[in-house]
């Protein structure tokens, strides 16, 4: 896939993400868990489709992310996208913000059922998810560092030479692992949460994903959408 085609495909995906974010926001206060659950499933499927499309790209193209600005790639990206642990940090941030705002109600026994109302079992599972994501992130970072250091060279009659094809293949494997970890972390976070809580987290995640290009336009030579 050529860079221009990949960029068009990304913009279409981002447009779909905006639409899903709007649907989640509209449904958040509908008091219909089934509708929220359906929309959460659609959101995760949209992320799955994005990962599948990226897997079709040349690894070097995916890593360079031509649809992104230099500011995005330099300041916001880890292995061509957001860190999986960012989603967990986002969950903690949104939970803490809501908890602080509604603490008097919680002390009176009012249970709003949002991210500020996470139970002990949920918090324990979120903590375990965070630990797993950190460990897997670190492993992928180490592997990418080995690739960038040129490990994987082959010995020839003239000495040590780089096998470019093998290195590109390894880059592709690392990027696919990163995308899989991003999706797995999102899926597992959603499984921990109630539908309304999951909707709030995914709205915040969409705000972050959509905010990346806006960040690039503001602080670097970003691309128009």
UniProtKB/TrEMBL annotation:
<dbReference type="Pfam" id="PF14144">
    <property type="entry name" value="DOG1"/>
</dbReference>
<dbReference type="InterPro" id="IPR051886">
    <property type="entry name" value="Seed_Dev/Stress_Resp_Reg"/>
</dbReference>
<dbReference type="InterPro" id="IPR025422">
    <property type="entry name" value="TGA_domain"/>
</dbReference>
<dbReference type="GO" id="GO:0006351">
    <property type="term" value="P:DNA-templated transcription"/>
</dbReference>
<dbReference type="GO" id="GO:0043565">
    <property type="term" value="F:sequence-specific DNA binding"/>
</dbReference>
<protein>
    <recommendedName>
        <fullName>DOG1 domain-containing protein</fullName>
    </recommendedName>
</protein>
<feature type="domain" description="DOG1">
    <location>
        <begin position="3"/>
        <end position="222"/>
    </location>
</feature>
């Amino acid at each position: 896939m050529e860079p221009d085609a990949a960029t068009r495909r990304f913009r279409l995906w981002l447009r779909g993400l905006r639409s899903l974010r709007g649907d989640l926001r509209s449904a958040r206060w509908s008091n219909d868990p089934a509708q929220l659950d359906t929309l959460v499933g659609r959101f995760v499927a949209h992320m799955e489709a994005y990962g599948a499309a990226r897997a079709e790209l040349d690894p070097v193209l995916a890593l360079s992310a031509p649809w992104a600005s230099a500011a995005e790639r330099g300041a916001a990206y880890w292995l061509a996208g957001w860190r999986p642990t960012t989603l967990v940090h986002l969950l903690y941030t949104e939970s803490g913000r809501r908890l602080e705002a509604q603490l008097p109600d919680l002390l009176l026994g009012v249970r709003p059922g949002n991210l500020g109302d996470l139970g002990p079992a949920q918090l324990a599972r979120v903590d375990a998810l965070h630990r797993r994501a950190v460990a897997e992130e670190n492993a992928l970072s180490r592997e990418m560092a080995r690739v960038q250091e040129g490990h994987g060279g082959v010995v020839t009659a003239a000495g040590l030479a780089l096998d470019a094809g093998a290195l590109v293949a390894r880059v592709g494997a690392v990027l696919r692992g990163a995308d899989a970890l991003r999706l797995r972390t999102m899926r597992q976070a959603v499984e921990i949460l109630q539908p309304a809580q999951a909707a709030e987290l995914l709205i915040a995640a969409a705000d972050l994903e959509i905010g990346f290009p806006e960040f690039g336009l503001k602080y670097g030579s970003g691309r128009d959408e």
